[in-house]
Amino acid sequence: IEKMVQEAESMRESDNKKKEAVTAKNDAETLTYQVEKQMTDFKDKISSADKEELTTKLAAVRESLVGEDLDPEAIKEKTKELQEVSWRVTQSVYQSSSDSSESTEGEKKEEKKEDEKTEKK
Question: Which residue, 116, 120, 97, is CA-closest to 108?
Fold first, then answer.
């Protein structure tokens, strides 16, 4: 029984490493899917430089996922880099779309005022 307990203890560390690697791989795959979807959804709104940077980071993440012996730290690092770029790009897309909607709203208000003035005359 003691021998089995010792074996279990010695395998716990390798099991934890495998679990960490699988978790990191799953997180990376999920993020790559989301970024690809984001690039498709916002293809007209993303600048070519941002698109190129996202594509480069996606390739780096995919490259870290290849092979049998996965390094969870490398995967996490590449995933973090991709996530930071993705957040920045998404933020700039939403900010630019909110800026354009604000200017559109401003134009509509000006048109309304002009319409009211013409109606009064």
Answer: 116
